[in-house]
Design brief:
This protein is an alpha+beta fold. 60% of the residues lie in helices and 13% in strands. It folds into two domains: 255 residues, CorA soluble domain-like (Beta Polymerase, domain 2, 2-Layer Sandwich), CATH 3.30.460; 60 residues, Methane Monooxygenase Hydroxylase, Chain G, domain 1 (Up-down Bundle), CATH 1.20.58. The chain is built from eight helices and seven strands, in the order E-E-E-H-H-H-E-E-E-E-H-H-H-H-H. It comes from Gluconacetobacter tumulicola.
Length: 324
């Protein structure tokens, strides 16, 4: 989809060159080859492909061609409890901005609504700064939600007052481990997005061939400071994720040790009765208890005692009780 966002007008599709006249923000959303060709003809610039936008080296993400500034970064899109990462590209020209994306982002939709509802005139530089501010705000919202989720996860991991039942402990620990893993993946993806945004802010602010106005440069500096603070928060989140991961793995080890205790008890109590049965099952003629009237019951009682006494001993030491 190839659309134009204009002040005081409804977002309209671009079909011909005339539809883009005087438009400061051209937006390519999951474009077709024909739409990419139309955008290239209108702007006179090369339109990067998805493969171009997914390059990881800085020289491929931040560069200039002629008078146009090419910028790209991965962005996190969060939908309820799920998320994914998709690349976003910016082609900043003297008189307009072209964005290339392959999925919808709430920050882009927010700025599009703000521009179409306004009667003020926006330049391409102003639109780019607005988008960067909105994206950083969205990253902050995601991190705030992630922090709250980790607080809930921490309470679930360390709920010492709730007994871990034998049938549910494994399922609960698996669920906790998956939640910790997803939180770590989200924190890592947000860090990548913030790193890309920080590089864009620095590159645009220090680019002498495409000078921003003093007001926009100040706003871009504010964006850069916000990104630094969010990076510090991501580091804190990452440390907490690692802590919860270690704690969850520790509880899993405890559950495994409990299982090994049960196996040890079963193995131990099986040895003594087997020994008694082996002794009185030997085929020797001179066995004192062989002709004893109560020898059979004596051997059964002895085997029962060798089972009960170790069980009582293990029970007193808590080996037969499931931990909390």
């Amino acid at each position: 989809m190839f659309v134009a966002h204009c002040p005081g007008q409804v977002t309209r599709p671009i079909v011909t060159d005339a539809d883009a006249t005087g438009v400061a923000w051209l937006d390519l959303l999951d474009p077709t080859p024909d739409e990419q060709a139309l955008a290239a003809r209108i702007t006179g610039q090369r339109i990067p492909t998805r493969a171009d936008l997914e390059e990881i080296e800085s020289s491929s993400r931040l560069f200039m061609e002629d008078d146009a500034v090419y910028l790209s970064t991965p962005l996190v899109r969060r939908i309820q409890d799920d998320f994914f990462v998709s690349p976003v590209g910016f082609v900043l020209m003297r008189d307009r901005l072209l964005t290339i994306r392959f999925t919808e982002f709430s920050s882009f939709d927010l700025i599009a609504k703000q521009i179409t509802a306004s009667k003020e005139t926006y330049s391409g530089d102003e639109v780019s700064v607005l988008l960067l501010e909105a994206v950083v705000d969205r990253m902050a919202d995601i991190l705030e939600h992630l922090g709250q989720s980790l607080d809930t996860l921490s309470r679930d991991v360390f709920q010492a007052d709730q007994p871990r039942q034998a049938g549910r402990a494994d399922q609960m620990l698996r669920s906790l481990l998956r939640r910790v893993g997803r939180s770590g993946d989200l924190a890592s993806s947000v860090r990548d997005s913030l790193l890309g945004m920080e590089r864009i802010a620095i590159f645009v602010s220090e680019n002498k061939k495409h000078d921003l106005s003093e007001k926009l440069r100040d706003r871009m500096s504010t964006v850069a400071r916000d990104i630094v603070s969010l990076n510090d928060f991501v580091s804190q989140i990452s440390n907490k994720v690692q802590f919860l991961l270690d704690a969850t793995l520790g509880f899993i080890s405890i559950e495994q040790n409990n299982g090994m205790k049960i196996l040890t008890v079963v193995s131990f109590i099986g040895v003594a009765p087997t020994l008694v049965a082996g002794i009185y099952g030997m085929n020797f003629h001179d066995i004192p208890e062989l002709n004893w009237k109560y020898g059979y019951w004596y051997s059964l009682a002895l085997m029962a005692a060798t089972i009960i006494i170790p069980l009582l001993w293990f029970w007193q030491r808590g080996w037969l009780a499931r931990g909390r």
